């Protein structure tokens, strides 16, 4: 028996005599008028809305070895406070039938994270396991499917990997060691390399006919999206029913229903637009001055995820990237510090990008200078104003710097088209460039070597070319010329060079 208590923030708290559901609370609802509907849904599926870890129906993964030499590593040293927490977790896992005592010849060490999560170091075991190859989603573009959604619901599975079973014959491989004894997993633990693939494949099986219609997920992060609230309620009910049918449970504390703005995979989605969630970039903004190449790589890696929001990303990073070159002695210069501050500023004040509408044509603006290529992907809004979907810029390689301006214009177009091919292959698009030489290259009968290959790839796509003066092509032009602002002018347009030299190029 359940009853509900509501507070001023329209959060549901479930109170029940069954201790299994005592901690089930704080389901956030964006629309107060839908509270009663969610109340009914929770009362109908109390087995789903619980912090109890579920057990996926008909899912037992078999682990296959490529190297049968056992892994057996002694336990890590843990402080007394950490040991106490580890003991509590082990006792809970035994109670929930997630682990069992083991005498396996295998043994990987366990440790406690800062968030008090028990993690097993399966680094050595993972090297000996046959990999499971299954796509888990394109992290950068997954949110593009959310266009048209006016209402969103976010669902997070309870310790999702631990809801996936392991076959009896494979369990001994997962044995882990502690000073309390040795145990082996009956469910997939965090840290086992097959976890993401197993979970993604299972969820795809459950949601195969509704995925990308009104549901997207990245592993256990699930988003339901709908155009209106009544349709959204029906979608939520269907998803919860399928989770119940497959004995999966969700974390009520992380569930948010009927939201008109959400944060998904670090992006804020609202009104068919996307931008950076500021909460996900705190570490970048507060990152200290790097003291080593390792820290430089970490910082660049963190910033690279957001590069589509930074029009001049490649140029800004150039002084920092230079530190990674072979043979370069590490020295944090004023140029590096200036680049770091620019990156922080750009990520702190990102542009708002449009979610792509695949029923409308795209416009691609590209440009090239001697030193770089750049482009911006755009689409018209209701007022027919072209608004950005993403930015791209790239510094030419030493081999590419030798190309004629006509080849560079073609290369810039190729790079941008391949960057956004999933957008541009759908229907005819407009390619806008500030150099009429590209039109000449596409129409001339004399094409040799790489130029011929490039043109062949361009002609396979449905697009028209529109000439744009450099003064009007401000974004793409500025991005391309960032790499050589103080250099001499580009070679004259009448110096057409179709000769293909013998030097191999790694360009497209």
TrEMBL record:
Gene3D superfamilies: 3.30.70.270, HIV Type 1 Reverse Transcriptase, subunit A, domain 1. Keywords: Multifunctional enzyme. It is an enzyme of class 2 (transferase). Residues 47-269 form the Reverse transcriptase domain. GO terms for molecular function: RNA-directed DNA polymerase activity. It comes from the Eukaryota. Residues 485-508 are annotated as: Disordered. Its EC number is 2.7.7.49. The keyword Nucleotide-binding does not apply. InterPro entries: DNA/RNA_pol_sf (IPR043502), Retrovirus_Pol_polyprotein (IPR050951), Rev_trsase/Diguanyl_cyclase (IPR043128), RT_dom (IPR000477), RT_RNaseH_2 (IPR041577). The keyword DNA repair does not apply. PROSITE patterns: RT_POL. This is RNA-directed DNA polymerase. It comes from Graphocephala atropunctata. The lineage of its organism: Eukaryota, Metazoa, Ecdysozoa, Arthropoda, Hexapoda.
């Amino acid at each position: 028996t359940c009853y509900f208590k509501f507070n001023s923030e329209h959060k549901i708290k479930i109170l029940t005599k069954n201790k299994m559901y005592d901690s089930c609370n704080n389901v956030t609802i964006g629309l107060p008028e839908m509270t009663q509907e969610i109340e009914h849904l929770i009362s109908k599926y109390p087995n789903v809305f619980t912090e109890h870890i579920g057990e996926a129906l008909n899912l037992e993964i078999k682990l296959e070895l490529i190297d049968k030499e056992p892994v057996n590593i002694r336990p890590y040293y843990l402080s007394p406070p950490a040991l106490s927490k580890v003991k509590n977790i082990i006792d809970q896992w035994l109670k929930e039938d997630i682990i069992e005592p083991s005498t396996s010849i295998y043994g990987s060490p366990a440790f406690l994270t800062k968030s008090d999560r028990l993690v097993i170091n399966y680094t050595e075991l993972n090297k000996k396991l046959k990999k499971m190859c299954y796509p888990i989603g394109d992290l950068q573009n997954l949110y593009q499917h959310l266009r048209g959604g006016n209402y969103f619901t976010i669902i997070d599975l309870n310790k999702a990997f631990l809801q996936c079973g392991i076959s009896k014959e494979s369990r001994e491989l997962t044995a882990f060691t502690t000073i309390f004894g040795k145990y082996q997993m009956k469910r997939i633990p965090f840290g086992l390399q097959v976890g993401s693939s197993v979970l993604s494949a299972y969820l795809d099986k459950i949601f195969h006919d509704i995925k990308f219609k009104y549901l997207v997920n990245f592993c256990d992060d699930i988003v339901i999206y709908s155009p209106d609230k009544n349709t959204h309620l029906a979608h939520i009910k269907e998803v919860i029913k399928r989770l119940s049918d497959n004995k999966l449970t969700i974390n009520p504390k992380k569930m948010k229903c009927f939201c008109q703005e959400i944060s998904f995979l670090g992006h804020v989605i609202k009104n068919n637009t996307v931008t950076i969630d500021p909460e996900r970039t705190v570490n970048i903004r507060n990152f200290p001055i790097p003291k080593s190449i390792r820290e430089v790589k970490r910082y660049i890696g963190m910033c690279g995820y957001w590069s589509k929001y930074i029009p001049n990303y490649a140029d800004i990073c150039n002084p920092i990237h230079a530190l990674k070159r072979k043979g370069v002695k590490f020295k944090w210069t004023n140029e590096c510090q200036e680049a770091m501050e620019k990156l922080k500023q750009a990520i702190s004040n990102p542009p708002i990008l449009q979610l792509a509408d695949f029923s409308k044509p795209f416009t691609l603006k590209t440009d090239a200078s001697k030193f770089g290529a750049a482009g911006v992907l755009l689409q018209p809004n209701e007022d027919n104003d072209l608004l950005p979907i993403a930015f791209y810029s790239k510094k030419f390689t030493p081999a590419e710097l030798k190309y004629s301006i006509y080849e560079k214009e073609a290369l810039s177009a190729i790079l941008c088209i391949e960057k956004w091919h999933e957008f541009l292959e759908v229907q005819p698009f407009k390619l806008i460039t500030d150099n009429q030489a590209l039109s000449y290259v596409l129409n001339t009968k004399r094409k040799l070597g790489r130029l011929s290959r490039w043109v062949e790839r361009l002609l396979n796509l449905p697009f028209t070319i529109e000439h744009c003066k450099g003064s009007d092509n401000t974004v793409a032009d500025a991005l391309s010329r960032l790499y050589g602002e103080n250099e001499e002018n580009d070679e004259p347009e009448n110096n057409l060079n179709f000769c293909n030299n013998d030097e191999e190029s790694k360009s497209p």
